[in-house]
């Protein structure tokens, strides 16, 4: 099983489970401790200190059994008093020292992210750094090895809450314990990730962008029925009202810059200056974005899925969001990293549609629709906690507050933006209801 690092940390619809087929290379670090001899220690060779890419589907009897085992472990942790709180408000990293590091080390030992043999030193050494990376990987956080505000918040979720989270999600997982089909797709919304499954094993993983808190991606069971290459995007009324009108008020060149045309009821093209943007007049017209992978909000391909919500899965020209921890950025659709690999897998049983032909059609720029034969089952699910057969327990933020604990999402989630702002994604509309 290949070991990998979970990269984490636009408005374009889309919409971790956890990683892409080709995670981006780590940038060179400016950390002054990078040259320490501690980096030569064997901590990074220990299998238990890494989180591997799993080929076990999240919707599978194996995951159900592993989650049941995780519940037993967390029951023992809770019965033993849980884990200590890590002082917040300070950034801990390689070379830090003090009582906060002692508490952090104890916290990681209790949750199994480092071994008890590492001792109780007050120094943030390479063992603690490896444990933090492992913890971050299990929680869908960028593997920096640094305890920042986001990591500290996840560390300080109580063991009791984590146990309840596992118990709630076990019910969800059991509801999918039946036969889901030989070939199917699972999109796990809280993880902002998609996996394709064939013969009981994950074939491809895809980082995804999913719905914002106020424009949630729906939980549903459906089928992928058609692939649209080089699609037009027709802007729906909800996006015209919420996004397009405010953008035109701020920048009169927005439509032109984004290759969006305006048509009246007689299908005659209008110029943007003919519309009163200080009113709702724009709702009387049809807006369509030209095809083009570099600017079209749907990118080069859209995947139609049968549903009453007007959502779908698609490519995006704003690839930067796939490197963010926070990927709840769409109007309900799901957009995919490495979408061509995803489409190639969907079209596997359509004669003549290999990867070379797919690339050729995309290069042509022509609109081509391909019906999937047969249609492929697709499951959009909401799973915030689960166990893996390798003994690694995964948690994700309850972004839509469906676990029933109350409270509120993280500060970044409430603001509806990525933790790390991305200049590639800040000036695009969110597609939804394409050509509805």
UniProtKB/TrEMBL annotation:
Q: Where does the L,D-TPase catalytic domain lie?
A: 183-371
Query: Where would one find the signal peptide in this protein?
Result: 1-27
This protein's species is Methylocystis heyeri
Q: Which residues cross the membrane?
A: none
Top-level taxon = Bacteria
GO-annotated molecular function? carboxypeptidase activity; transferase activity
One protein family per Pfam: PG_binding_1
Pathway, per UniProt? Answer: Cell wall biogenesis; peptidoglycan biosynthesis
- Positions annotated as active site in the UniProt record: 314 (proton donor/acceptor), 333 (nucleophile)
Q: Which InterPro entries match?
A: LD-transpeptidase_YkuD-like (IPR052905), LD_TPept_cat_dom (IPR005490), Peptidoglycan-bd-like (IPR002477), PGBD-like_sf (IPR036365), PGBDSf (IPR036366), Transpep_catalytic_dom (IPR038063)
Q: Where is this region: Disordered?
A: 408-436
Which UniProt keywords are present, listed alphabetically?
Cell shape, Cell wall biogenesis/degradation, Peptidoglycan synthesis, Signal, Transferase
Q: What is this protein called?
A: L,D-transpeptidase family protein
**What are the BP-aspect GO terms?**
cell wall organization; peptidoglycan biosynthetic process; regulation of cell shape
Which family does the record assign? Belongs to the YkuD family.
């Amino acid at each position: 099983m290949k070991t990998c690092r979970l990269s984490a940390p636009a408005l374009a619809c889309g919409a971790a489970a956890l990683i892409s087929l080709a995670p981006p290379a780590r940038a060179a670090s400016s950390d002054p401790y990078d040259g320490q001899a501690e980096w030569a220690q064997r901590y990074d060779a220990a299998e238990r200190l890494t989180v591997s890419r799993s080929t076990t589907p999240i919707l599978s009897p194996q995951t159900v059994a592993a989650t049941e085992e995780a519940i037993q472990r967390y029951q023992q942790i809770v019965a033993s008093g849980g884990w200590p709180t890590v002082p917040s408000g300070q950034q801990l990293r390689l070379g830090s020292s003090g009582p906060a590091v002692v508490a952090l080390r104890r916290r990681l030992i209790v949750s199994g992210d480092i071994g008890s043999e590492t001792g109780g030193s007050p120094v943030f050494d390479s063992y603690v750094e490896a444990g933090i990376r492992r913890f971050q990987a299990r929680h869908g956080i960028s593997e920096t090895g640094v305890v920042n505000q986001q990591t500290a918040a996840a560390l300080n979720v109580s063991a009791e809450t984590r146990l309840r989270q596992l118990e709630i999600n076990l019910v969800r997982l059991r509801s999918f314990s039946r036969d889901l089909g030989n070939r199917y797709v699972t999109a796990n919304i809280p993880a902002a990730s998609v996996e394709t499954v064939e013969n009981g094993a994950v074939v491809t993983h895809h980082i995804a962008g999913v719905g914002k808190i106020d424009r949630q991606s729906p939980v549903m069971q459906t089928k992928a029925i058609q692939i649209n290459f080089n699609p037009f995007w027709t802007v729906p009324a909800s996006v015209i009202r919420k996004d397009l009108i405010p953008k035109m008020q701020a920048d009169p060149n927005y439509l032109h810059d984004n290759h969006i045309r305006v048509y009246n009821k007689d299908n005659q093209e209008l110029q943007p200056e003919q519309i009163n943007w200080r009113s709702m007049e724009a709702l009387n017209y049809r807006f369509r974005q030209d095809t083009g992978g570099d600017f079209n909000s749907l990118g080069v391909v859209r995947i139609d899925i049968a549903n009453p919500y007007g959502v779908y899965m698609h490519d995006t020209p704003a690839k930067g969001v796939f490197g963010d921890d926070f990927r709840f950025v769409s109007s309900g659709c799901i957009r995919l990293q490495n979408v061509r690999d995803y489409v190639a897998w969907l079209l596997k049983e359509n004669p003549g549609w290999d990867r070379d032909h797919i690339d050729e059609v995309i290069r042509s720029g022509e609109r081509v629709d391909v019906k999937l034969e047969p249609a492929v089952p697709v499951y959009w699910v909401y799973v915030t906690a689960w166990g893996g057969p390798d003994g690694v327990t995964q948690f994700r933020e309850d972004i839509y507050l469906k676990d029933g604990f109350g409270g509120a999402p993280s500060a970044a989630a409430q603001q509806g933006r990525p933790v790390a702002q991305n200049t590639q994604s800040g000036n695009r509309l969110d597609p939804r209801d394409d050509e509805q």
